[in-house]
Amino acid sequence: MPAGKAGKLLSVASGLRRRPVSAAVHIEDRGYQFADGVYEVMAVIGGCLLDEGPHLARLARSLAELRIAPPMSSAALQLVMREVIRRNGVRDGIVYVQITRGVAARDHAFPVTARPVLVVAARRKRRADPRAVADGVAVITIPDIRWQRCDIKSVWQAAGEGGWFL
What we know:
Elements: E1 11-13, E2 16-18, H1 30-34, E3 37-45, E4 48-49, H2 52-65, H3 74-87, E5 93-100, E6 117-124, H4 130-135, H5 158-162
Antiparallel strand pairs: 1-2, 1-6, 3-4, 3-5, 5-6
């Protein structure tokens, strides 16, 4: 996005439309405290969501598996996503949807009264290089040692740490 246009960005968090710089996550949101939530990232190509149906089906299934109530109907979420995409001028990019169990006092037991928290954000990204799509790209794998290092209380992302995910 060109310099000086950042004020145009819009995200939706907890039902409020905000610029990302003023959007905030509550300190006791279970997504922040316990990674107690789900997310989907959908490609936007030519202003259209790619594979929207399968992504929304997986989102609904993931919410059901974690026993998190959807914060709104699928049709309403589709409208919100499109509004965020439109308001951010995203023709090619991504839309990110995250739903957490909600805000509650820090405790391992599931809260009874927490309401799910929804975050929707969209951003522009360049389309993949057609040569990389045609020819493929080099990848590496690394061992997943998280269970071997249970002495570390971490929300570790190995690919990000190593700079391998570009």
